[in-house]
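Researcher: Structure prediction, please.
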Amino acid sequence: MAIQKTSREEILKQSAKLFKIKGYYNTSMSDIANACGLLKGSIYHHFKSKDDIGLESLKYIHQYFKDEIFSIANNNTLNTLEKIKLLVRRTDNYFLNSEGGCLLGNLALEVSWSNIEFKNEIKDYFLNWEETLYKIYKEKYSDKKAQELSKEFVALIQGEIMMMNLHNDKDRYLKVGEKMIKLLE
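Model: Predicted structure follows.
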């Protein structure tokens, strides 16, 4: 194997991919090293442990969503319908082009009961997602209804990501976005 220099970001990207596909506990440091074209020991120049990589992978994906998707709710140049359409399009783009589903959803099921740091990061991610949808739906609906819709759609999206991967069928997943948009038309 040719040894190469790999950035911290590339290690996080490859680790997140492996954690989604193989699961956190079934992914070894050797798997991560191989995916990055590194010797196993080289990873320790960037991260102190697999748990460190796992937590930083969660934070990396969360930050991506904050920057690219959740920020849409605060974009005052877009009207409400444009916001939800852009949010749905970017969310679809991410999950339809990302093998293995949702890293934070997967790890919520696999490790949040045993790792409080992971659990807190995952909770923050899903709360941010709910807050994002709440801000958008609050532009048309009452406070209570906007809260209900935001919680319902985060749960629906996550459930349909799982079903999409289980059945290798994206149609039901795509219908969630259509429903989200229809409520603001």
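Model: The mean pLDDT is 94.
Researcher: Thanks, that helps.
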